[in-house]
Predict the structure.
Amino acid sequence: MMFGKKSARRSYLDDYHRTASGEYIYTGAIYIFEAGEESRVKYKKTLWLLTAPMIVLAVIGGFLRVPGMVHMNGVPSVPYIMIPYTAELILAVLANWGMASMNGKTLREYTYKRTVLRLPKVYTIAMIAALIGLVGEIVFIAIFGTFGHTGLAVLYCVFKIISAGLNYFAQKVIKNSRWLRRAGSAIK
């Protein structure tokens, strides 16, 4: 970092100012859900109903004894299943973390940028990871078979399809939301 140059990661701190009494107040821009409070509550519930199951599916999928995910009959786990699974799990955690950050009736500008603007990318990449994991599992089964674990392999593939769908619809919901920007207040 160069002298005199602030980190972009910490630039939001410029929106906090100290009052005469010594407390810090936020004076930056805020974002308000355009459709009103009732619609905002419905929007949040819809996103939670789409986002929360993603992490559950990813965690349960990791515990399934699925061909390609674990060493079976001398065939090791394969990267073309493990890497997309790991990416999907991490992205599900990030999506849930982002949703937890979207609390309150308004969003501060830095929260808006970290959630409303970034979550569609997180959902899209998670959807792609789930689909790559699905294709990877199908390819693995086509080459090596299921080693007698057909039911678990099918369940894992169903989880990937559901996860991809949840990510797709969550991405659409958040991309179609409209937020109004209100300029920050001046220091008094």
About this structure: Strands lie at 16-18, 24-26, 30-33, 106-108, 179-182. The chain has five helices and five strands. Residues 52 and 130 are 16 Å apart (CA to CA). The mean pLDDT is 88.
